[in-house]
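QA checklist item 7 of 12: single-chain prediction sanity check.
[x] sequence parsed
[x] length recorded as 879
[x] structure emitted
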Amino acid sequence: MLHPVRWVRSVLLYNRISPMTEPTTAFRTLPNWTFQRPRRSKLRLCLRATLLVLALLCLFCGAAYLWFRSAANAALPQLDGAIEIEGLSSPVSVIRDAQGVPNIRAANMEDLLVAQGYVTAQDRLWEMDTMRRYAAGELAAGLGSDFVELDKKQRTLGLRQVADRAAANLSPRDRAFLEAYARGVNAYIADHQHSLPLEFRLARYSPVAWTPTDSFLVGAAMAEGLNNYSYAHELGREKVLAKLGPELTADLYVNNSFRDIPPSGDGQELTGGSDQAPAATDAPNDNAEPSRRPRRAQRAHHPRLQQHPPVRRRPRRHRAAMAVPGLSTTPLDSAKLDFSAYDFLEPLADGSNSWVLSGEHTASGKPLLSNDMHLRHQLPNVWYEAHLTAGDFDVAGVTLPGAPFVVVGHNRRIAWGFTNLGPDVEDVFIETFNERGEYLTPEGWKSPDVRHETIRVKNGRDVSFDVLVTRHGPLITPPDKNDKRKLALKWVIYDPQALTFPFFDLNSAKNWQEFRAAFSHFGTPGQNVVYADVDGHIGYQATGLVPTRSSGDGSLPVNGSDDQHEWTGYIPFDQLPSVFDPPSGLLATANARITPDGYPNSISTEWVAPYRTERIYRVLRQDRKFTSADMLALQMDVQSEIDRYVAERVVYAAERSPKTSDRARKAVDLLRKWDGRLLADSAPAAIAVVSRQKLTRLILEAKLGKDSKDYEWFRQPVWLENALLFQQPRWLPPQFKDYDELLTAALEDAVRDPQAPSDLSSWKYGDTFPVEIRHDFFGKMPFLRRYAGPGVQPQSGGGQTVKQVGRNFGPSERLTVDFSNFDSSTLNIVNGQSDHLFSRHFNDQWQAWYTGTTFPLPFSQDAVEKARVNDLTLMPVRR
């Protein structure tokens, strides 16, 4: 067919007319064609444009990739050779092992701390900077408006002022230590302005110089995470009390249990429970991930402990009587199990396990000390492993990035481990204000102090506001938006003597007396500390400033206009619980009650539930000799006594009920054979825990309705156990005639749960209650997400197992110190030593943490040399 344009041209030529003349008849009879650009030309143009865009996109992506890889490689620390840095007086040796753990050896203490600051910054500068920014409320300045509300909360708490005051109160010796550490950090920052870690490059800001105040900010952030939760629980308790009255409220907020075993409760009888040996692994069928195990990892030995017939539990009467901070927009408060579909499971306190055995219980005849501290997961991890040596000063363990010395570990003579004491160190005071903005005191009306705060916001407007501070503390924003009262927070951290620096004295201690002397001036966060030494002694010491009150126990908000509830001082250090060489040769703590019956002072109104402590004592009281491998097996133990107990009651109730559905009876068959272990691939474990959650919900919603969310209590499982154990009529919901009917209904709800598969036997506990760990910065980038940590993985364990875990919570390290040979001691953290995404030490410890293996912690010079993988020398700058 003739093209229209060619046809027109032929017509014009044929009629010998100009295109400007009147058209001829032939032109007027032009066919009714639509004049368009040739389709082939249009397609060709589109193709060329598409190819050009793709070429430009590929060019851009290639350039971005090359920049990214270049920036990432430039940021990786130098691990071998020599580096000249400011602040040194003599060379310092830095030998790293296969996991990147540095042995830093210096000629004097000042050089040692300069080197510690430099080496820690090599691996963790981003974490250090975001931690201090978090504490001070300065995240928005570097990261934008998403962090303004979090900054406002932190500014209100005033941790910057706390840290400034603590730094100003330093002794000359300790000031010199912190300044030396800061010089090392600043030497690294100065030398790497053009090769900072990727996070700084992508966020487009540079860290400012490090100061001693920043080290205290890091410590204050840790204190906040461990101790800044009770005020919220006090406000929730107040609302529950108003709705339920004193009797039911006292039940809910139980603070003792027949299972409690204080460290001084030597030889206390244990009630019924499983004597089965700890034998658990995170990996379903021991094969959770296909990646290789670390070369030096040591697997936990799971020996079969001596078995006993199950002991029937007898009802007994009650005895009188605790991510990255820098990038999470959620405050560092107490973690929850954090499985959003199961919101009636108990909150989890930042806590830990620690225990110590004397030589009479060990295969070597020498003490064994173990510690695993449970904290919110973050990547990079909370702790940084290091071995510090300068002359006779020789200590190894975990350090807190941003602060010098070792927090938990051992020196040549002693070892120690922490668990959170959980003291009640916060009170809420209801202040009375008048129309002039004054508040009422026993001396009359006074004006509050006003602290003006300005939050710098990257790419945004500054946010300014005033913080009002009464004689009790800053006015805080209540969690309930409808609460319009003026509430002041009194917190021990505001006492100038609270935030202290005992770690040089602790790291240098040679015996029990020097160990206690180091902690006698330790203010916050209060800790349980277990102890052992080379002479075979073991011990326990409670630490921290614990307030005494003129009346009350701090469990509820109180009137701030009088002096009826003022703090009168602190429990003297010599009156805090302490045990040395108990006859049993065994001490253990796991955040539960540590005060014996008749103890005259109130330390905590909210101890953690006792199930972990009881399980630890049950295992360690077996008649056998333990090894360090047994210690790791116990740290991985996933026996849940509360879930086993609830499962037994559910089975008994459902079997007797004629209304039990066929699906629920299948669940009963699975539960009947269950041994109480929360293993990742276990169907009955999933059924048991979900049934407990449904049971808790049925009871609480019947009493509290929509206000059930106000009830948060670490001993919530103890309340539930008491209600079932004593068949308390006051807790039976009215729609049920007895507890058997209630328990059966909970099981029916569990098997109808949306996560329950059609075949109940295929339900996997670990898929329902997984762990999730990702780098907070890189984990939000789609193209880097898969490299930014393990992600979501099935896991064993739960809130009340020795291996205490939640979705974003769990053991932050696992340490065992073997006094028969320090080189046989073991230590691992969760992911790795390095914050650098492409470092081989970014995630190289994950498999060990996940599957229950660990690594040697070399201590002698020979062992350090044998473990050498990298050898770096830090040199003074040549003038």
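[x] summary fact logged: The chain has 24 helices and 33 strands.
[ ] second reviewer sign-off
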